[in-house]
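Quick start: load a record and inspect it. Here is Histidine phosphatase family protein:
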Amino acid sequence: MKKLLLIRHAKATHETGFTDFERPLTDKGFMQAELMAARLQVNSIQPQILVSSPALRTLSTANVFGQVLGLPQAITNKDIYDASENALLKVIYNLPDTHDLIALVGHNPGISQVLYYLSGAIKEVPPCAVALIEFDADSWAEVHEASGKLTHYDTPSPPAP
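Running the structure step on this input writes:
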């Protein structure tokens, strides 16, 4: 069984003076990442590796998750940055089969699109949202449309009443 943890990067600055690729996390973003990583720990969701876009905000998010969960440094993949659904699917299909639970840290709209494509779940994916999809598959290459089941979903903000 393969499990994919989708993580959207935490809150990043919109201040001028940064290229999109260089936008850093805000203080709130760092707090969101710590909170969400701690919630994964409480729910015994422990990825084996983190695969992240190399953009500063995603890599910073991945680093916080890695520190809280005691994981090795995130592996960066430039194909995740500004990726379409198809580009993200290619990344997923090529994940190492030696790992059964992998966290992918990326950007919207790609993260939302892949969540829907793989699980059929329609969810808001605000900054630092996490979604765990489980697949009855032995290889990442076997993952396909609607083949996954959303088993955990969480956001840093409480849902609106």
